[in-house]
Amino acid sequence: MSAFFAFLHHLAAFSLVAALTGELVLVRGAPTVENARRILRFDAAYGMSAGVLLVAGLLRVFYFEKGAAYYLHSAPFLGKLALFLAIGLLSIYPTLEFLSWRAALRLGQVPVVDPAKLRLIGKIIHWELVLMLLMLPLAVLMARGVGNFG
């Protein structure tokens, strides 16, 4: 079971990055009905990946790996958790904007979005990806026991 949840955790992380990358590419392109629909699908995949990542990660912490005491006394783990929370908070604005497009899409219309708002969303998604990248060295340090206190 431990190996399965490790696999699931990593699969969700890679899926999350793929979904964010898809959103970033599409939000920088020309607004079309099909691109807007794709963005909504990528955002749904992003949300599902984030949920699986969190659940699988917590199951690993509390049931399948070194135990909660180890992880809760690990600065890199707490850093990863803080970055994950920051990414989640950053994702709220783009997701709310994407969801607001559904009414226009139901009518087969391109959502009307201010280009400045799309640029801001692109910047937010870019920063989400940067924060995901910053999680990688923390994962390595955590796995090696570097930064444990207590």
Model description:
With 150 residues, the chain is mainly alpha-helical. It has a single domain, classed as Four Helix Bundle (Hemerythrin (Met), subunit A), CATH 1.20.120. It is 82% helix and 0% strand. The chain contains six helices and no strands. The longest helix has 32 residues, at 33-64. It starts with a helix and ends in a 7-residue tail after the last helix.
The number of helices is: 6
The helix content, as a percent range, equals over 70%
Q: What is the ordering of alpha helices and beta strands?
A: HHHHHH
Radius of gyration: 18 Å
Report strand %: under 5%
Alpha carbon gap, first and last residue: 29 Å
Main sheet? none
Number of strands: 0
Global mean pLDDT: 96
CATH fold title: Four Helix Bundle (Hemerythrin (Met), subunit A)
- Give the low-pLDDT segments: none
Structural class: mainly alpha
| Number of structural units classed as domains | 1
In the CATH classification, which architecture applies?
A: Up-down Bundle
Q: What overall geometry do the principal axes of the alpha carbons give? A: elongated
**CATH class category:** Mainly Alpha
